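[Protein data]
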Amino acid sequence: MAKKRVAVTGVGMTKQRSSRPDVTGIELINEAVRAALDDAGITRKDVDAIVIGNMDHFEGINYVDTWSVDGNGALMKPIMKVCTGGTTGTTVAMAAYYHVASGLFDKVLAIAWEKNSESDTTGAIITAFDPFWDRPCFAGAVAGLALEATQYMAETGATEEDAAYVAVRDRKHALLNPYAHLHINLTIEMVMESPYLSWPVKMGDMCPRTDGACALIFASEDVVDEFPHRPAWILAVADRHLWAYTSDPYVNQKMVGGTWFPAMEKATEEIYSKVGITDPLNQFDLAELYLPYSFAGLRYMESLGFCDRGGGPELVRSGATDLGGKCPVNPSGGVLSSNAIGATGLLRVAECALQLQGRAGERQVPNARLALATGFGGCFWSDELILGVDKPEKPRG
Protein backbone atom coordinates (compact mmCIF):
# COMPACT_ATOMS: atom_id res chain seq x y z
CA MET A 1 0.00 0.00 0.00
CA ALA A 2 1.40 3.40 -1.02
CA LYS A 3 2.03 5.97 1.68
CA LYS A 4 -0.25 8.98 1.78
CA ARG A 5 0.67 12.62 2.28
CA VAL A 6 -0.83 13.98 5.49
CA ALA A 7 -1.92 17.44 6.67
CA VAL A 8 -3.38 19.05 9.79
CA THR A 9 -6.77 20.39 8.74
CA GLY A 10 -8.46 21.26 12.04
CA VAL A 11 -7.27 22.73 15.34
CA GLY A 12 -9.05 22.80 18.69
CA MET A 13 -7.85 23.65 22.18
CA THR A 14 -9.15 24.73 25.53
CA LYS A 15 -7.92 27.82 27.29
CA GLN A 16 -4.98 26.72 29.43
CA ARG A 17 -5.57 27.43 33.12
CA SER A 18 -4.05 26.56 36.52
CA SER A 19 -7.22 24.70 37.43
CA ARG A 20 -10.47 23.66 35.76
CA PRO A 21 -12.67 22.51 38.67
CA ASP A 22 -15.73 23.20 36.53
CA VAL A 23 -15.13 20.18 34.29
CA THR A 24 -14.21 16.52 34.57
CA GLY A 25 -11.45 15.04 32.44
CA ILE A 26 -14.09 13.78 30.01
CA GLU A 27 -15.59 17.25 29.67
CA LEU A 28 -12.17 18.89 29.26
CA ILE A 29 -11.31 16.47 26.47
CA ASN A 30 -14.67 17.10 24.83
CA GLU A 31 -14.12 20.87 24.76
CA ALA A 32 -11.02 20.42 22.61
CA VAL A 33 -12.62 17.71 20.45
CA ARG A 34 -15.69 19.82 19.68
CA ALA A 35 -13.48 22.81 18.85
CA ALA A 36 -11.35 20.74 16.44
CA LEU A 37 -14.37 19.19 14.71
CA ASP A 38 -16.05 22.59 14.35
CA ASP A 39 -12.82 24.11 13.04
CA ALA A 40 -12.50 21.37 10.43
CA GLY A 41 -16.18 21.57 9.48
CA ILE A 42 -16.83 17.90 10.21
CA THR A 43 -18.67 15.79 12.78
CA ARG A 44 -17.72 12.81 14.89
CA LYS A 45 -19.20 10.51 12.23
CA ASP A 46 -16.60 11.71 9.72
CA VAL A 47 -13.65 10.61 11.90
CA ASP A 48 -12.15 7.22 11.01
CA ALA A 49 -9.93 6.69 14.08
CA ILE A 50 -8.72 8.40 17.26
CA VAL A 51 -5.34 8.65 19.00
CA ILE A 52 -5.36 9.94 22.58
CA GLY A 53 -2.76 10.49 25.27
CA ASN A 54 -1.92 12.07 28.61
CA MET A 55 0.44 11.45 31.52
CA ASP A 56 -1.99 8.98 33.07
CA HIS A 57 0.19 8.05 36.04
CA PHE A 58 0.13 11.70 37.17
CA GLU A 59 -3.61 11.57 37.87
CA GLY A 60 -3.44 7.88 38.76
CA ILE A 61 -6.25 7.07 36.32
CA ASN A 62 -5.50 4.58 33.55
CA TYR A 63 -7.30 3.63 30.31
CA VAL A 64 -8.25 7.12 29.17
CA ASP A 65 -9.04 5.59 25.77
CA THR A 66 -11.99 3.75 27.36
CA TRP A 67 -13.38 5.84 30.21
CA SER A 68 -13.35 9.09 28.21
CA VAL A 69 -15.25 7.69 25.23
CA ASP A 70 -18.21 10.03 25.86
CA GLY A 71 -15.81 12.95 25.45
CA ASN A 72 -13.39 11.65 22.83
CA GLY A 73 -16.05 10.43 20.37
CA ALA A 74 -14.50 6.99 19.85
CA LEU A 75 -17.70 4.95 20.26
CA MET A 76 -17.51 2.10 17.71
CA LYS A 77 -14.29 3.51 16.26
CA PRO A 78 -10.64 2.40 16.48
CA ILE A 79 -8.77 4.22 19.26
CA MET A 80 -5.14 4.03 20.43
CA LYS A 81 -3.73 5.38 23.69
CA VAL A 82 -0.19 6.81 23.68
CA CYS A 83 1.86 7.76 26.74
CA THR A 84 5.59 8.51 26.39
CA GLY A 85 6.27 10.93 29.23
CA GLY A 86 6.67 14.60 28.39
CA THR A 87 6.80 13.74 24.70
CA THR A 88 3.27 12.32 24.83
CA GLY A 89 1.69 15.18 22.87
CA THR A 90 4.15 15.02 19.98
CA THR A 91 4.02 11.22 20.00
CA VAL A 92 0.23 11.44 19.72
CA ALA A 93 0.73 13.68 16.67
CA MET A 94 3.21 11.25 15.16
CA ALA A 95 0.91 8.29 15.78
CA ALA A 96 -1.99 10.11 14.11
CA TYR A 97 0.30 10.94 11.19
CA TYR A 98 1.28 7.29 10.82
CA HIS A 99 -2.38 6.21 10.94
CA VAL A 100 -3.18 8.42 7.94
CA ALA A 101 0.09 7.94 6.06
CA SER A 102 -0.49 4.18 6.15
CA GLY A 103 -3.48 4.62 3.88
CA LEU A 104 -5.77 2.84 6.34
CA PHE A 105 -7.58 5.99 7.51
CA ASP A 106 -8.47 9.30 5.82
CA LYS A 107 -9.40 11.38 8.88
CA VAL A 108 -7.85 10.84 12.31
CA LEU A 109 -8.56 12.79 15.49
CA ALA A 110 -5.52 13.35 17.74
CA ILE A 111 -6.28 14.29 21.38
CA ALA A 112 -3.92 15.17 24.24
CA TRP A 113 -4.84 16.53 27.65
CA GLU A 114 -3.91 16.93 31.33
CA LYS A 115 -5.48 18.00 34.62
CA ASN A 116 -2.37 18.85 36.60
CA SER A 117 -4.54 20.33 39.34
CA GLU A 118 -5.63 16.78 40.19
CA SER A 119 -2.21 15.14 39.99
CA ASP A 120 0.88 14.46 42.05
CA THR A 121 3.45 15.26 39.38
CA THR A 122 6.58 15.09 41.52
CA GLY A 123 5.52 11.86 43.21
CA ALA A 124 4.73 10.27 39.85
CA ILE A 125 8.02 11.35 38.29
CA ILE A 126 10.11 10.06 41.17
CA THR A 127 8.38 6.67 41.22
CA ALA A 128 8.60 6.33 37.43
CA PHE A 129 12.35 5.74 37.64
CA ASP A 130 14.57 2.91 38.78
CA PRO A 131 14.33 2.56 42.59
CA PHE A 132 18.01 1.72 43.08
CA TRP A 133 19.85 4.00 40.65
CA ASP A 134 17.59 7.00 40.19
CA ARG A 135 15.17 7.63 43.05
CA PRO A 136 17.71 8.39 45.82
CA CYS A 137 19.16 11.33 43.85
CA PHE A 138 16.33 12.45 41.56
CA ALA A 139 13.87 14.71 43.34
CA GLY A 140 11.45 15.28 40.47
CA ALA A 141 11.69 17.27 37.24
CA VAL A 142 13.29 20.45 38.62
CA ALA A 143 16.34 18.65 40.02
CA GLY A 144 17.00 16.87 36.73
CA LEU A 145 16.75 20.10 34.79
CA ALA A 146 19.04 21.85 37.27
CA LEU A 147 21.65 19.16 36.61
CA GLU A 148 21.41 19.92 32.90
CA ALA A 149 21.67 23.66 33.54
CA THR A 150 24.77 23.40 35.72
CA GLN A 151 26.51 21.24 33.14
CA TYR A 152 25.65 23.71 30.39
CA MET A 153 26.90 26.68 32.42
CA ALA A 154 30.14 24.90 33.33
CA GLU A 155 30.93 23.96 29.74
CA THR A 156 29.95 27.20 27.99
CA GLY A 157 30.20 29.99 30.55
CA ALA A 158 26.49 30.79 30.13
CA THR A 159 24.91 32.74 32.98
CA GLU A 160 21.59 32.77 34.79
CA GLU A 161 20.83 36.10 33.12
CA ASP A 162 21.31 34.52 29.68
CA ALA A 163 18.58 32.04 30.55
CA ALA A 164 16.35 34.82 31.87
CA TYR A 165 16.17 36.24 28.34
CA VAL A 166 14.40 33.06 27.22
CA ALA A 167 11.86 33.31 30.05
CA VAL A 168 11.15 36.96 29.25
CA ARG A 169 10.81 36.29 25.50
CA ASP A 170 8.31 33.46 25.83
CA ARG A 171 6.21 35.21 28.47
CA LYS A 172 6.01 38.34 26.28
CA HIS A 173 4.84 36.23 23.35
CA ALA A 174 2.16 34.65 25.57
CA LEU A 175 0.62 38.09 26.14
CA LEU A 176 -0.62 37.84 22.53
CA ASN A 177 -2.10 34.35 22.98
CA PRO A 178 -5.56 34.32 24.59
CA TYR A 179 -5.28 30.55 25.21
CA ALA A 180 -2.05 30.77 27.24
CA HIS A 181 -2.08 30.03 30.97
CA LEU A 182 0.35 32.74 32.14
CA HIS A 183 0.01 36.34 31.02
CA ILE A 184 2.95 38.04 32.73
CA ASN A 185 4.85 41.03 31.42
CA LEU A 186 8.06 39.59 32.86
CA THR A 187 11.38 41.43 33.05
CA ILE A 188 14.95 40.19 33.43
CA GLU A 189 15.02 41.66 36.93
CA MET A 190 11.86 39.83 37.93
CA VAL A 191 13.32 36.49 36.81
CA MET A 192 16.65 37.12 38.55
CA GLU A 193 14.94 38.11 41.81
CA SER A 194 12.56 35.13 41.87
CA PRO A 195 13.32 32.42 44.48
CA TYR A 196 15.51 29.42 43.69
CA LEU A 197 13.88 26.03 43.26
CA SER A 198 17.12 24.10 42.67
CA TRP A 199 20.17 26.18 41.81
CA PRO A 200 20.52 27.67 39.22
CA VAL A 201 16.85 27.22 38.34
CA LYS A 202 14.51 29.86 39.79
CA MET A 203 10.76 30.20 39.89
CA GLY A 204 10.87 32.61 36.95
CA ASP A 205 12.77 30.04 34.88
CA MET A 206 10.19 27.28 35.21
CA CYS A 207 7.00 26.30 33.43
CA PRO A 208 3.65 26.28 35.28
CA ARG A 209 1.31 23.36 36.09
CA THR A 210 -1.67 23.65 33.77
CA ASP A 211 -5.07 22.10 33.07
CA GLY A 212 -5.88 21.93 29.38
CA ALA A 213 -6.54 19.89 26.25
CA CYS A 214 -5.76 20.03 22.55
CA ALA A 215 -7.19 18.18 19.55
CA LEU A 216 -6.13 18.13 15.89
CA ILE A 217 -7.59 16.63 12.73
CA PHE A 218 -5.06 14.81 10.53
CA ALA A 219 -6.26 14.19 6.98
CA SER A 220 -5.09 12.31 3.92
CA GLU A 221 -4.16 14.09 0.70
CA ASP A 222 -7.22 12.42 -0.82
CA VAL A 223 -9.66 14.44 1.31
CA VAL A 224 -7.89 17.71 2.25
CA ASP A 225 -9.96 19.67 -0.25
CA GLU A 226 -13.05 18.95 1.85
CA PHE A 227 -11.81 21.19 4.67
CA PRO A 228 -12.24 24.98 4.97
CA HIS A 229 -8.64 25.88 5.90
CA ARG A 230 -5.33 25.64 4.10
CA PRO A 231 -3.69 22.28 4.90
CA ALA A 232 -0.63 22.39 7.14
CA TRP A 233 1.33 19.51 5.65
CA ILE A 234 3.44 17.18 7.77
CA LEU A 235 6.71 17.13 5.84
CA ALA A 236 8.66 14.80 8.15
CA VAL A 237 8.77 13.32 11.64
CA ALA A 238 11.57 11.83 13.74
CA ASP A 239 12.08 10.74 17.33
CA ARG A 240 14.78 9.34 19.59
CA HIS A 241 13.92 7.75 22.94
CA LEU A 242 17.45 6.66 23.76
CA TRP A 243 17.95 6.26 27.49
CA ALA A 244 16.43 4.41 30.44
CA TYR A 245 18.08 6.17 33.41
CA THR A 246 18.02 9.87 34.26
CA SER A 247 21.83 9.94 34.35
CA ASP A 248 22.27 8.29 30.94
CA PRO A 249 22.45 11.49 28.84
CA TYR A 250 25.43 12.60 30.94
CA VAL A 251 27.23 9.34 31.67
CA ASN A 252 26.94 8.05 28.12
CA GLN A 253 27.84 11.16 26.11
CA LYS A 254 31.11 9.61 24.95
CA MET A 255 29.22 6.58 23.64
CA VAL A 256 27.50 8.75 21.03
CA GLY A 257 30.46 10.83 20.00
CA GLY A 258 30.32 13.50 22.70
CA THR A 259 27.11 15.04 21.40
CA TRP A 260 25.42 17.83 23.31
CA PHE A 261 21.85 16.51 23.53
CA PRO A 262 22.07 13.03 21.96
CA ALA A 263 18.36 12.33 21.41
CA MET A 264 17.65 15.76 19.92
CA GLU A 265 20.74 15.77 17.74
CA LYS A 266 20.07 12.31 16.32
CA ALA A 267 16.40 13.16 15.64
CA THR A 268 17.45 16.49 14.11
CA GLU A 269 19.96 14.86 11.81
CA GLU A 270 17.29 12.50 10.51
CA ILE A 271 14.48 15.00 10.06
CA TYR A 272 16.63 17.71 8.46
CA SER A 273 17.93 15.21 5.91
CA LYS A 274 14.34 14.32 4.95
CA VAL A 275 13.37 17.93 4.24
CA GLY A 276 16.70 19.38 3.09
CA ILE A 277 17.28 21.68 6.06
CA THR A 278 20.88 22.95 6.11
CA ASP A 279 20.42 26.40 7.68
CA PRO A 280 17.52 26.13 10.16
CA LEU A 281 17.71 29.68 11.49
CA ASN A 282 17.15 31.05 8.01
CA GLN A 283 15.01 28.28 6.53
CA PHE A 284 12.38 27.93 9.27
CA ASP A 285 9.88 30.77 9.59
CA LEU A 286 9.12 29.81 13.21
CA ALA A 287 9.79 27.09 15.76
CA GLU A 288 7.59 25.82 18.58
CA LEU A 289 10.04 24.16 20.96
CA TYR A 290 9.24 22.17 24.08
CA LEU A 291 11.22 24.27 26.57
CA PRO A 292 10.22 23.25 30.11
CA TYR A 293 12.56 25.84 31.61
CA SER A 294 14.61 28.78 30.42
CA PHE A 295 18.05 27.13 30.13
CA ALA A 296 16.61 24.72 27.57
CA GLY A 297 16.05 27.72 25.30
CA LEU A 298 19.82 28.17 25.12
CA ARG A 299 21.10 24.62 24.89
CA TYR A 300 18.43 23.25 22.56
CA MET A 301 19.06 25.96 19.97
CA GLU A 302 22.57 24.59 19.65
CA SER A 303 21.47 20.95 19.36
CA LEU A 304 18.96 21.99 16.68
CA GLY A 305 21.71 23.70 14.69
CA PHE A 306 20.34 27.25 15.00
CA CYS A 307 23.77 28.35 16.20
CA ASP A 308 27.17 26.92 17.07
CA ARG A 309 27.83 25.14 20.34
CA GLY A 310 27.91 27.72 23.12
CA GLY A 311 26.18 30.28 20.89
CA GLY A 312 22.73 30.03 22.45
CA PRO A 313 23.06 33.05 24.75
CA GLU A 314 24.25 35.35 21.97
CA LEU A 315 21.49 34.16 19.63
CA VAL A 316 18.73 34.74 22.17
CA ARG A 317 20.08 38.13 23.25
CA SER A 318 20.27 39.24 19.59
CA GLY A 319 16.47 39.19 19.23
CA ALA A 320 16.61 36.78 16.27
CA THR A 321 14.18 34.42 18.02
CA ASP A 322 11.72 37.13 19.12
CA LEU A 323 8.49 37.85 17.26
CA GLY A 324 9.62 40.08 14.42
CA GLY A 325 13.06 38.44 14.41
CA LYS A 326 14.67 36.13 11.88
CA CYS A 327 13.00 32.96 13.24
CA PRO A 328 10.54 33.52 16.09
CA VAL A 329 10.66 30.78 18.71
CA ASN A 330 7.49 29.95 20.65
CA PRO A 331 5.19 32.70 19.34
CA SER A 332 2.47 30.94 21.37
CA GLY A 333 4.34 31.61 24.62
CA GLY A 334 5.55 28.03 24.72
CA VAL A 335 5.77 25.62 27.62
CA LEU A 336 7.01 28.40 29.91
CA SER A 337 3.53 29.91 29.61
CA SER A 338 1.32 26.78 29.45
CA ASN A 339 2.15 23.23 30.49
CA ALA A 340 -0.77 20.81 30.45
CA ILE A 341 1.88 18.12 30.23
CA GLY A 342 0.12 15.44 28.18
CA ALA A 343 -1.11 18.13 25.77
CA THR A 344 2.03 20.26 25.74
CA GLY A 345 3.68 18.60 22.74
CA LEU A 346 0.48 18.56 20.69
CA LEU A 347 0.04 22.27 21.40
CA ARG A 348 3.40 22.86 19.71
CA VAL A 349 2.09 21.18 16.56
CA ALA A 350 -1.22 23.05 16.84
CA GLU A 351 0.53 26.43 16.97
CA CYS A 352 2.64 25.56 13.92
CA ALA A 353 -0.52 24.62 12.02
CA LEU A 354 -2.30 27.86 12.95
CA GLN A 355 0.74 29.90 11.92
CA LEU A 356 1.02 28.15 8.55
CA GLN A 357 -2.70 28.66 7.97
CA GLY A 358 -2.37 32.37 8.79
CA ARG A 359 -4.77 32.07 11.75
CA ALA A 360 -2.57 32.93 14.75
CA GLY A 361 -4.06 36.36 15.45
CA GLU A 362 -1.85 39.03 17.02
CA ARG A 363 1.08 36.61 17.26
CA GLN A 364 0.98 35.71 13.56
CA VAL A 365 4.38 35.37 11.88
CA PRO A 366 4.04 37.05 8.45
CA ASN A 367 4.07 34.69 5.46
CA ALA A 368 4.94 31.62 7.54
CA ARG A 369 5.63 28.64 5.26
CA LEU A 370 7.89 26.27 7.22
CA ALA A 371 7.77 25.41 10.93
CA LEU A 372 9.46 23.10 13.41
CA ALA A 373 7.76 21.52 16.44
CA THR A 374 9.57 19.51 19.13
CA GLY A 375 8.66 17.40 22.14
CA PHE A 376 10.80 16.71 25.21
CA GLY A 377 10.41 14.27 28.07
CA GLY A 378 11.38 11.07 29.82
CA CYS A 379 15.14 10.56 30.10
CA PHE A 380 15.86 13.51 27.79
CA TRP A 381 13.94 12.04 24.85
CA SER A 382 13.15 14.08 21.75
CA ASP A 383 10.35 14.12 19.13
CA GLU A 384 10.40 16.44 16.10
CA LEU A 385 7.93 17.34 13.35
CA ILE A 386 8.36 19.70 10.41
CA LEU A 387 5.23 21.29 8.92
CA GLY A 388 4.90 23.34 5.75
CA VAL A 389 2.36 24.92 3.42
CA ASP A 390 3.78 23.26 0.32
CA LYS A 391 2.51 19.77 -0.47
CA PRO A 392 5.35 17.31 0.14
CA GLU A 393 6.70 15.08 -2.59
CA LYS A 394 4.94 11.78 -3.04
CA PRO A 395 6.32 9.36 -0.43
CA ARG A 396 7.80 6.17 -1.78
CA GLY A 397 5.83 3.06 -0.79
